[in-house]
Amino acid sequence: MTHCGRKPDHDPQKHNLITLIPVSVGPTINNISVHPDRPEPLDLHLGMFLPTLLNQATPEQMDHFFMPSWNLEIIGTYAQTEIGHGTHLRGLETTATYDPATQEFVLNSPTVSSIKWWPGGLGKTSNHAIVLAQLHTLGNCHGLHAFIVPIRDMSTHEPLPGIVVGDIGPKFGFSEVDNGFLKLENVRLPRENMLMKYAKVEPDGTYVKPPSEKLTYGTMVFIRSMIVGQSAQALSKSCTIAIRYSAVRHQSELRPGEPEPQILDYQTQQYKLFPLLATAYAFIFVGQYMRKTYHRITGDINQGDFSELPELHALSAGLKAFTTWAANSGIEVCRMSCGGHGYSRSSALPDIYVNFTPACTYEGENTVMMLQTARYLVKSYQRAKNGQQLSGSVSYLNEAEHQRLQPQPVAARPTVVDINDLASLVEGYKLRAATLVQIAAKSIQQELQHRKNQEDAWNNSAIDLVRASDAHCHYVVVKLFTDKLGEIGDTAIHSVLSTLALLYALHGITQNSGDFLQAGLLSVPQMMLISARIKELLSQLRPNAVALVDAFDIRDKKLNSVLGRYDGNVYEHLFEWARRSPLNSTEVHESFHKYLKPLRAKL
Amino acid sequence: MTHCGRKPDHDPQKHNLITLIPVSVGPTINNISVHPDRPEPLDLHLGMFLPTLLNQATPEQMDHFFMPSWNLEIIGTYAQTEIGHGTHLRGLETTATYDPATQEFVLNSPTVSSIKWWPGGLGKTSNHAIVLAQLHTLGNCHGLHAFIVPIRDMSTHEPLPGIVVGDIGPKFGFSEVDNGFLKLENVRLPRENMLMKYAKVEPDGTYVKPPSEKLTYGTMVFIRSMIVGQSAQALSKSCTIAIRYSAVRHQSELRPGEPEPQILDYQTQQYKLFPLLATAYAFIFVGQYMRKTYHRITGDINQGDFSELPELHALSAGLKAFTTWAANSGIEVCRMSCGGHGYSRSSALPDIYVNFTPACTYEGENTVMMLQTARYLVKSYQRAKNGQQLSGSVSYLNEAEHQRLQPQPVAARPTVVDINDLASLVEGYKLRAATLVQIAAKSIQQELQHRKNQEDAWNNSAIDLVRASDAHCHYVVVKLFTDKLGEIGDTAIHSVLSTLALLYALHGITQNSGDFLQAGLLSVPQMMLISARIKELLSQLRPNAVALVDAFDIRDKKLNSVLGRYDGNVYEHLFEWARRSPLNSTEVHESFHKYLKPLRAKL
């Protein structure tokens, strides 16, 4: 009995999809780096330093800095986070004090906690950094502004006077990148090194405000929208590996005397992987929607119309958190579903995880993001209560019926959801979100009655607020997935994607069944039916599962996973991969001569 | 404003616990290795090779092998898992065929999938391995048996003829360990190299069965019980780091104009960490209980009484899975609650995670473990239905009232749980488990009616079965935590541990609120009260939180975490740690001369 060379189910005979679905997830990644998907020391030069110049430099600064940066004479990074300050930007301590006598800025790291920390490429690679610092001029502080700071000599690469710079040491992942620290000790910069496209400091020290505070808003929204796409990307890769491998791996007996089945035939394996497959598809569509919306609104912003920005800002914050958390735990479920081999770096899953997981923290820590969205939801709720008409994703807060939604005995209210109808499920998710926004808003109200302090009331309602944001984002995702189905003409593809969308929606309900029961949106017998329906959907998806990951169209070279190989020849290549392990370069490792032999001699 | 040197709240003034609780978690770890807590190449020699000799070698074999092994002349490992076979032992393919002519066994790896894979220390360190192989003699296969196989020359350390051995390559963690592969090609062993304390092969090839199959059972139970303790250990360390750091880290504003608060003052941070703190305490007590029970039952087993073994076997399987899954995700919550710095290896959290996470897979993959427990639960349910009296943790299946439990409209049944009374909550968890065992058993029944095939019925009920096991384990944990309170005399300690136990129980209910609502155990208004009560408990625990992790008594040296330092001087030491990064050994890294300079020259 051989277990090798069994291929995953690419065979069209095994699935009922004649045409593979052409869902390339390629465009979701940031393609500006040299090797997309792999962190590199030059990432921040390409992804942050150059774009910041483009967005915030004056024409004179562009003339001076852009071409040398483009030619890699100047290699830059973006230094914002400090050792003691991350998400809360106002807390940053680095100072840039203008000296009108010499027309220079004097930059300082006044405390240990103010040392710049984390920027990629800062430790060893960059010779310049865009440094965010509190601008002081003529005795006033004007908040954070960006400065171009030379940190290493252009020819010797030695740190310049007043600069203490280095690598911050080993991390969970990103070992290819020299994330760095930067301590500034009375570093003097010419006035021209402050990025002055918007805010300015005149030669005499006069501060000129930027025309709008909202301009920097856009970049944040853009990056967070991109991260939604990266969540889709990371989860698609992980599902591709785990599902293909589960069609190759055989284990145990299902029926006595029969050969060991593919582990993908186990209901528990399907229950781990297929909801994640559905999630990956959902997030691809959400990512596409966010990019489209961003570009649409950017047009408006350029014409001075900021009206949709708060909505997009709230949505991008919440969805950034919602999708990165789901992808983060999903990658690990995929890894562990591959058993021991998932733990080997040959599977690629450990690397996918360690390189993706920072997305839960960077560009806005996820819980903080959820609370930002919650602030928008609660504000919108108050507006709706005051009779204002809302638009966009929160318009449901206007709908009269939710005003009557009250947590009450489940059986006392007629249920509203048809569990086989996606449109009805979207409605259910919407009403759940409305209920939870209301609960959070009421919690704040109650706290205010007890304590009369807005900030404490907010903090004492934070659990409810995060829950409301989560429900809102969940609603948006289910809705966008459902909307997407309307765009698909091919019957076979429409059918299998509808199955995925239904699985996504129903699985989400079982994971949050208390909410739906509490809000009276579903009855107890319906919950039982949903469990049964999910099992049916898993069986329906089984024959299409491998085709559905093939449709992500991630080539072997990019997937870089022995377990996820398209040809399914896992064990031979695992053996081959292992033989190339650095430890195998000699038959007898030096540790034998250095340690084991001397140790024996002593015993 | 400096943010450095703020110490965590060790100050007894800040908490109302006069005495720190002396809960040392030390004894829960396997102390046989040289450096407890850190994986090492000799771990399997000490933890598996020597103990297996002690348990399964004959006196003659002991004379021959034990002292050389004790003196590290023989360095051994334990080779069971194969590249294509893990949890399903019967599927292992390595063969040992007895040749009566020469009185030797001939060992072979007949396929690629049969290559031994994963054993620690196998790749480069060991010169012997205990190999598990299918024993063939006189034309019959007698299943798995253990053989002592020399794999490297005792003086040159070169692989012996017929042996292909090496390292399996880089992994997620365990980089200190040379996990290895072993391919056997007609390797001949003297008859005396089969471990023959129980089963035997006579010189003429006659096979002699072992006296009891259940003897190997005990070791498995022992190891799984130990893993429960390791879950407690890993989670205690993670909570110590995250909670101390959350008392050091300051961020944002709670009240305008006031200094940045400790992040532990945020409700969301408390909601992430305090339930995990409660879980760590719960698992410590469960680990203690499992060890005690194991040792009690071992006495019985040695006297030939195996009656309690199935119960302990089922319990250890389920609790191994339940606790490792919870600890696994909990470590990551702790890491991410430390923001960016959690991602630095200086926090120790990445290492805790990568070294702990294999526990979800090894010694019985978690889903398989849950299904083993489920098998026992369903069997017990059938017995109870047939009127048999059950004992031990499943005795609740006997209780008459559960026979009437049926999922039904929530409001239609009087609720039974008092949310402020731990004993009543234990009762609630018990009834939830009873309901879910019943649902799983009924699912199997229904499937049988449709398909009449036991195996398919089982597989098609697997989701329900895992859910039932999970609920059973959850009940056992809540019950053991509650029982433990009865042993605590000190009023202050009793009080704070009761708060933790209540938080553990109520938080578990909110995470599974659908189950409790569906089973009619709690009403919708009670669910609202529970949410409010949890917020109160978080506030109550806040002043004691640091004292509660200090009570784990994990010294700085063992914790090995800059973020979790007892003295709280995090930022200074983070800076110091970073400066020692290997990349900082030169000011200008060689990559500048090797890559950047030549690259520039080309542009």
Radius of gyration of chain A: 27 Å
Q: CATH H level of the largest domain in chain A: which superfamily?
A: Butyryl-CoA Dehydrogenase, subunit A, domain 3
Strand residue percentage of chain A: 5-15%
Succession of helices and strands of chain A: HHEEEEEEEEEEEHHHHHHHHHHHHHHHH
CATH architectural group of the largest domain in chain A: Up-down Bundle
Structural class of chain A: alpha+beta
Q: Which shape of chain A, going by the Cα principal axes?
A: globular
Characteristic terms for this protein:
homodimer; 603 residues; alpha+beta; Butyryl-CoA Dehydrogenase, subunit A, domain 2; Butyryl-CoA Dehydrogenase, subunit A, domain 3; 3-stranded antiparallel β-sheet; 11 strands; disordered N terminus
What's this entry about, in short?
With 603 residues, chain A is of the alpha+beta class.
Q: If you had to describe this structure to a student in words, what would you say it looks like?
A:
The structure is a homodimer of 603-residue chains. The longest helix of chain A has 36 residues, at 267-302. The relative contact order of chain A is 0.11. Chain A has 603 residues and is of the alpha+beta class. Chain A starts with 42 loop residues before the first helix and ends with a helix. Chain A is built from 18 helices and eleven strands. The model of chain A is unreliable at 1-5, 15-33 and 406-412 (pLDDT under 50). The first copy, chain A, is globular. Chain A is 49% helix and 9% strand. In chain A, strands 1, 2, 3, 5, 6 and 9 form a six-stranded mixed beta sheet that branches. In chain A, strands 4-8-7 form a three-stranded antiparallel beta sheet, with no helix packed on it. Chain A has a two-stranded antiparallel sheet with strand order 10-11. Chain A folds into two domains: 37-202, Beta Barrel (Butyryl-CoA Dehydrogenase, subunit A, domain 2), CATH 2.40.110.10; 220-549, Up-down Bundle (Butyryl-CoA Dehydrogenase, subunit A, domain 3). Chains A and B meet through helix 4, helix 5, helix 7, helix 10 and helix 11 of A and helix 4, helix 5, helix 7, helix 10 and helix 11 of B. Chains A, B: One of its GO terms (molecular function) is fatty acid binding. Chains A, B: Residues 217-378 form the Acyl-CoA oxidase C-alpha1 domain. Chains A, B: Pathway: Lipid metabolism; peroxisomal fatty acid beta-oxidation. Chains A, B: The active site is at 363 (proton acceptor). Chains A, B: One of its GO terms (biological process) is lipid homeostasis.
